[in-house]
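Human:
Class, as today's exercise, you are to examine the entry below, and be ready to discuss the fold:
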Amino acid sequence: MNAVTEFLQANGSELLLKTWEHIYISYLAVILGIIVAIPLGIALTRVPRVAQWVIGIVSVMQTIPSLAILAFFIPFLGIGTVPAVLALFIYSVLPILRNTYTSVKDVDDSLIEAGRGMGMTTWERIKGIELPLASPVIMAGIRVSSVYLIGWAALASFIGAGGLGDFIFSGLNLYDAAFIIGGAIPVTILALLTDIIFGRIEKLVTPKGIRDSEKTA
């Protein structure tokens, strides 16, 4: 305990900086994942045959070890934040894409037909019917993706992108448990806070009718 206290006294300001770097890398990757995966997931519901191929390819990419992806980007992008964010972005896509595709595809066809009968355009049906009904499942995918990325972002320090992984790997190199704990505990706290925050957002975006049905179930 004394070692951890000494670590905080000696590295408190740097810990705040590394925490900010960790949040920046993780959340930027998630935002990019949202920007790409949600429109792509909606588009794929219109072409189911293509959807299986695209989701399959993304799933295969998800199985590639994260260090391998980081190493792959180094010859093209060098080291630092950019390759780290792109690598994490690749990992963020699958949960969001799969949940978006599944939830939009499962929207009741009778509701879509009702919207079409009212003269709604394709965009109006997406915005007014499909996305509101699919939003809880989409948000669940964003939530899972965000929590995973908080943990994976620790590997970004391997290519000089900063973050709390710097403390963890310094502790491993120096055989100093205080550095490992000083990096690992904030990562865990960030992951838990992210899960709580996105869980609240998930409830907020859930249509009232669905929330009421869940309460009575």
